[in-house]
Amino acid sequence: MSNSKYSKIKRILVTGGAGFIGSHLCEKLLDQGHEILCVDNCFTGNKSNVYHLMDNPKFEFYRHDITFPLYVEVDEIYNLACPASPIHYQFDPVQTLKTSVHGAINMLGLAKRVKARILQASTSEIYGDPEVHPQPESYWGNVNPIGSRSCYDEGKRCAETLFFDYHRQYGMPIKIARIFNTYGPRMQPDDGRVVSNFILQALRGEPITIYGDGMQTRSFCYVDDLADGLIKMMQTAFSVTGPVNLGNPVEHRILDLAKNIGELTDSPSKIVFRPLPQDDPRRRRPDIRLAETLLQWRPQIPIDIGLRRTINYFRCGAEDNSLGSKDKF
Ligand SMILES: NC(=O)c1ccc[n+]([C@@H]2O[C@H](COP(=O)([O-])OP(=O)(O)OC[C@H]3O[C@@H](n4cnc5c(N)ncnc54)[C@H](O)[C@@H]3O)[C@@H](O)[C@H]2O)c1
Question: Which of 55, 131, 196, 214 could be a cystine partner for 210, CB 3.0 to 4.6 Å?
Answer without folding.
Answer: 214
